Amino acid sequence: MTRNATTPDTPPPGDPTPGDPTPAASTAAASTAARTAGLRERLTWTTLAPPAALVVLALSWGRYPGTVVAVLLAVVLAAAVLAAVHHAEVVAHRVGEPYGSLVLAVAVTVIEVALIVTLVTAGGPETASLARDTVFAAVMITCNGILGLSLLVGALRHRVTVFNAEGTGAALATVATLATVCLVLPTFTTARPGPEFSPAQLAFAAVASLALYGLFVLTQTVRHRDFFLPVAADGSVLPDEDEHAAPPSDRATLGSLVLLLVALVAVVGLAKVESPTIEAGVMALGFPASFVGVVIALLVLAPETLAAVKAARRGRIQISLNLAFGSAMASIGLTLPVIAVSTIWLDGPLLLGLGSTQLVLLGLTVVVGTLTVVPGRATSLQGGVHLVLLAAFLFLAASP
Q1: How many structural domains are present in the chain?
Q2: Fewer CB near the terminus (10 Å): N or C of the chain?
């Protein structure tokens, strides 16, 4: 009798093949990989920078940093500023445009106000003009630097930049009015000697600044929101770039809001720690003490400048102009009321009036800005003109 050949046993259908992972193991591995990817996505430098800056602040508080430590603190401070602006952008993406530009401008201005107050508190009477110098520097950097660079980049890429003249003109008019009330009038008032407001005049300027800024925000976000949206060459409103992108979840938005607040606290504290080093560096270069205000403005407006240039490259110059004029407006409209309140406990005068050279630069900026904005179109020439005005301001600030 012939014996049948044996065949190897095969598992019944549905049973796992020996050596293959079970369905439960595959699910667990996929879940682990997803959690790891999610953790890597959340643990970016923008997430880690704010708490790290807070730890560095706690370790350095109350100490005078040496040169190496001061450089490291400056790096951490810059990272905290960039992280703050990033999280402001996340919140802005959730609320949409033009609210996004408003959130970013207010976040940057809060940083600026915090830096001014901390440096004035630490510097004593020698910093009586720091608020004026910083606010004026912010106006010149935004209305000439951010505006000029955005127009130049946009025109080089798209030949002609197009924007809404109605909304942009209203923003420029508000900036000019705020600058005149808060920075020009103190030079000519006679209630106090020197370029200084009396307490009643300071209170009026603070209330007027808040009221005017609030009215502009209402116009920008509610009454005439369409005046501040990007437009095409034919004047039609461009579609939102993010309309097809999912906005951040409520959890992500809340997390960014918390990290934004942490970053702002860290920036305020680190600025106070760094203030002696900033002042010593300016003096070592032979620049006047007023140049400290320029340094502060350049520091806090650098991230916003990058955001404006990115928008200009995408052909959305209106967003760049919203950022430029919105920041200038917030710098005056929010800084002066805070400084006015801080005079309750701060000793010494508060010098707000501009000098003759600054008055000429401000007047020329308003005139040139008006000629740039009225047509609703601009070329690289207008961008170059504004950048020359910025260069003149920086040169004269370093060598008055």
Answers
A1: 1
A2: N
* Three-state SS at 178: helix
Instruction: Check if the beta carbon of residue 98 is closer than 8 Å to that of residue 320.
Output: no
Instruction: Tell me the one-letter amino acid at 164.
Output: N
CATH of the domain at 147: 1.20.1420.30
Q: Is the peptide bond before 51 cis (omega within 30 degrees of 0)?
A: no
pLDDT digits 0-9 by tens, 108-154: 777 777 777 777 776 666 677 888 898 999 999 999 999 999 999 99
3 found inside a domain: no
Rounded alpha-carbon distances, angstroms, from residue 100 to 106, 195, 225, 338: 10, 36, 12, 23
Q: In whole angstroms, what is the distance from residue 113 CA to residue 111 CA?
A: 6
Token pair for 66: 């040496």
d(CA 396, CA 357): 8
Each residue's pLDDT tens digit, 4-27: 544 555 555 555 555 555 665 566
**C-alpha distances out from residue 213 to 22, 216, 297, 332, 368, Å:** 64, 5, 20, 9, 23
Q: Does residue 30 lie within any of the structural domains?
A: no
Domain of residue 258 covers 45-398
